[in-house]
Amino acid sequence: MALELKHERNQNVHHAVAQFAQRDHAIKIFQHPFVYLAADTSDVMAATDPRREENFRWHNMGLTNSPTNPAEYPVEFLYREVLAPDQLLEALSFFLIRVPEREAEDDRAACPAFTIFPRYHQSRLVRRIGQDITDHFADTGHIGKKYLADHSAGSGKTLSICWLADCLHSLYKPGTNEKLVDFVFILTDRKSLDTNVREDLGKFTHLKDVVGIARKADYLPRFLKERRPIIVTTQQKFAWVLKELQANPELKDLRVAFLIDEAHRSQEGQMGAAIRLPFRKADEPDEEAPDEDLEDHVARVIRQYDRNQLFVAFTATPSPGTVSLFGQSFDRYTEAEAIAEGYIVDVASSIISYKTLYHLHCPVVPAADEAERLYPKGVVSKALQNVAFQDDGLIQYKAEVMLRIFDKDVKPLIGGRAKAMIVASSRVAGLRYFQILKEKLKERAADYKVLFAFSDFVHPESNEAIREHSLNELKPGELIEDRFEGDDYRIMVVANKFQTGFDQPLLAGMFLDKPVSGRNAVQTVSRLNRCHSGKRDVVVVDFTNNAQKILKAFAKYRQGTPFQPEEPDRELCLKQHAEILEAGVFTQQDAAELVRLLRGDNDAQLQFLVNALRQRFLARIADWDERKTFVYRLALFVKTYHFLTCFFSFPLEIAEFAAFAEYVGPQLIKAGTVSELMRQVRATEVTKAAVQYQGVMTSGGRVKLRPGKGKAGTGPVSAKVTVQDMIAQIRAQFDISDEQALYIRQVTEEKIADPTIRNTVQAHRHDRVYLEGPYRGQVNGEIQTTYDQRGRYEELADPKYTDAGGIFDIMAVTVIHTHLTVAA
Fold first, then answer.
1. Is residue 383 scored above 70 in pLDDT?
2. Which of 492, 610, 670, 730 registers the highest number of CB atoms within 10 A of its CB?
3. Under 8 Å between Cβ of 730 and 791
């Protein structure tokens, strides 16, 4: 190992990196070290190849390093942990991965040999889980435990999973030569199984005879039979694996670890699909219904009483249910860290906002004998919005706006290679965008093309089968994401596809024509965050007047999940079950009879029973609203039951009634071939439409916080040094409440009292360029972190706080100038 150490009074970590790169690397001393560390008194960077500055990666504890002992430097962890003899030996024997040279083959270019060394948070996670589960087994005799790894995009998650799998495979029972974990399952989605995980595990050459990648259905049973120690399969196989482990006497007592790659949550869950069922054709599947939420699927099959099963979930945006199931994050690497350390691009610093305006007219009037029915407000709103967003004239208008913005603002990015994604509201709307854009590009003789990514469907008007492969003229076996790699394809329209889990570094523009919010907004817009040489800026354009909600969602998740674990309440499920039975519509005997028929797999008898149950339901509940409320209650009971079975066991009658409610509930309201709502919706026309420019919504998302690499604000530097003067200045510039003023005062005084900030300012008191530039940005980021920890998400999404020269900037300047005044 080689170290280049600097004191910030004179130089910093970036000087150390530059000097490493400038050395004569022919000298033997620069050829033997397995890792090169550059450090100052606040920051650490590491590389396995010191010949280029770009090879050095941050090796810090977080956004800022904090000493364990007050009298130490912030980088105390470097010499207490990283350079500790046992960790150096572990780095050499376990973490260091040498990837051999690869010769050119087919369309794969040759690749020289190289070395991989983990970033600090990766080795921290692996060490912590390995030690914790070993201690847990020593105390309890089993490995039944759950861990949540809250790691952002850009964290090197796949390599972290590989190292952790290797670690768990290498653990032994304390004081014995018996393996602690018999099987390690890596659960991921199909695309990751075929690419990311397979490629990264291939770099761990010492595991080639240990790992089994179940790319085909018959591989998984064979790997179990062979007792292959590490098995990679899809999340959809999770339930099958657990059942097999429980049912097979030879496997039942084995200790098993599951490493679960991010299970992306669909925008709506089973409950939303059940409620929509009455409003579609009885004989037609809901083409726009999302797949079952994989996070819910994972939660459903995990059981607290499986004492020999260890679960580690990796996710960048944990849902409240996931946090309640796994507990608070065991290890965290936030989006703010990934942005600050340059691993991902900040995609939420600003959004260009348009509002889609439309007038709707419905010529269908209910017949005299038809009472006008009331429908759930959300269902009606969404259905009518779909009409507007599928209107041909409106799509023509927006497509023209999108092309102009793409040509002017997106296409020139990344050296003229940038690509864009259009997120359509439905597959029907996406098809029209594709057709219209294709025609417009042909008229303009453009030098690029468009693709449309979607799941195959039947067009509701023409009944034509629309297939992704033929529509895009893909070659046999060719994937649309591979076609999009080519420089001649620059725009991809998507509909319910690629909003999550799509990795294309050249993607630098996104046009949102579909409302997204919360975790779904973060996951969707984050498709743009992959780094690429020359990629600094991205363009996000929203046509749904939803920009501020998107920025607020990013602010909420920037420092990791904002949710706290909630204590599950077993009585809730029992209470909901009792309330449904008290309504007097269905009985426990009904549930037992239906479950018996389900086991017999007799569909004709099942449907006969369901029809009788439906007639009873309609007879006993006459009011339309009460019917809908009862269907909601059944769906809520099913959702509650599936979640709480992750923590508790329930009597047989509860499980029976959950299966009954899940099967019967969605079939209770059958409003004919075409429900009246859909008849009216399909007859609705757009009479007037336009898009209206709303301006650029900004956020304080630019958190490039590192010294020498930061992006300083451009606002004026205030000369005021007292907190009272600062608040007076803010009130003169901005409209703030007394409560906001109190938070501003409290946070500013907290940062003024921070000894790390004080020491840094005093050490650099003669370097005003640094203090008023990069370091001002760092203090700004720490102020935002404090607001995030206090749950002040409104301020974090408010431009008057986050803009350059805004309130956070003024607070940072006040903190720095207060210390400068004291130092003077």
1. no
2. 492
3. no
Does pLDDT of 705 surpass 70? Answer: no
> What does DSSP say about strands 183-188 and 256-260: parallel, antiparallel, or unpaired?
parallel
- 43's tokens: 């920051």
Structure tokens of 54?
């770009």
What interhelical angle do 738-752 and 807-823 show, nearest 10?
40
Characterize 177-197 residue by residue with b for buried, 16 or more Cβ atoms within 10 angstroms of its Cβ, and e for exposed: eebbbbbbbbbbbebbbeebb
- Comparing 57 with 698, the larger pLDDT belongs to 57
| CB-CB contact of 752 with 819 (8 Å) | yes
**3-state class of 330 per DSSP?**
coil
The mean predicted confidence, pLDDT, of the chain is 79
3 state DSSP class of 382: helix
Cβ(670)–Cβ(277) under 8 Å? no
**How far apart are the C-alpha atoms of 661 and 655, rounded to whole Å?**
10
Q: What are the b/e assignments for 555-572, b being 16+ CB within 10 Å? A: bbbbbbbbbeeeebeeee
What is the DSSP secondary structure assignment for residue 407, as one 8-state letter? I
Tokens of 4: 């280049």
Cα–Cα nearest to 715, from 595, 801, 612 = 801
CA 823 to each of CA 697, 707, 759, 764, 783: distance values in angstroms, whole numbers, following the listed order: 39, 21, 10, 10, 22
Other residues' Cβ atoms within 10 Å of the Cβ of residue 62: 16
Maximum average pLDDT range among 567-571, 589-593, 643-647? 589-593
* β pairing state of 685-698 and 350-361: antiparallel
207 DSSP assignment: G
The whole-angstrom separation of Cα 301 and Cα 296 is 9
pTM above 0.70, yes or no: no
- Rounded to whole angstroms, what are the CA distances from 778 to 119, 301, 729? 21, 43, 22
In angstroms, the CA 61 to CA 75 distance is: 9
Question: Which residue is associated with the tokens 């299966």?
Answer: 659
299 with 642: CB under 8 angstroms? yes
